[in-house]
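Hello forum,

I keep getting stuck at the same step: I have a sequence, I want structure tokens, and every attempt I make locally crashes halfway through. Rather than fight my setup again tonight, could one of you with a working pipeline run this one for me? It's a single chain of 205 residues.
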Amino acid sequence: MPVKKIAPVITVFCYHPRFHEFYVAADLKFYYNRHTGSFEMDHHPHSDPFPVPVELHNTADAGILQFDTVYRGQQTTYELTALHPWDIVIFNLIREISHTDFTFHDDDKDKIELIFEEGDLSKIYFYKHEDDQLIDSLRIVRYEGSLHLVRQRPFTRIPLKGLQLEGNQLLAHTATEIIPYTLHTQPFILGIMKQLLENIQLSSV
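Reply #2:
Ran it on my machine without issues. Output:
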């Protein structure tokens, strides 16, 4: 059986409750199937999603995710090797989601996206909707090696000195103030986010 070995360069965590969409990526993209309670590998990552079930292997090393799936009509084994702590968080989520009570909550208001690239947190996007209206948002991007909070009117990039998740608030520390953003999302999602953000070195912020 062919074995495809991958060391992820891009890691993504995305939760979009309005459309019951939850996916993660470690180079490969995995969509949550709410009917089976598990993640499935997307075979069409650059077009309409085409998720296919995976059969996970038991591995002693948390930094390795192995699974079998059918790829282009052929049974294939994949082996993903973590390069960073957030990769392990994503691997554990893929392994353990079926053993949790996770479900989509109708009162979750925030679309949440965290993107890690080249060994650093590179982007955070939050979009809060209520009654189909966008009522709040937050954008943080890496610019010239450090994280900046982006404001649109007027357009400004504010350098950040620190970033932390306390309860359901993301606190963005600038040189002069702490800018809070309140997340309306379930504890399960907040817990995964906290694990991901705990692994960000303050020096890289």
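Helices lie at 85-96, 187-198. If your local run keeps crashing, start a new thread with the error log.
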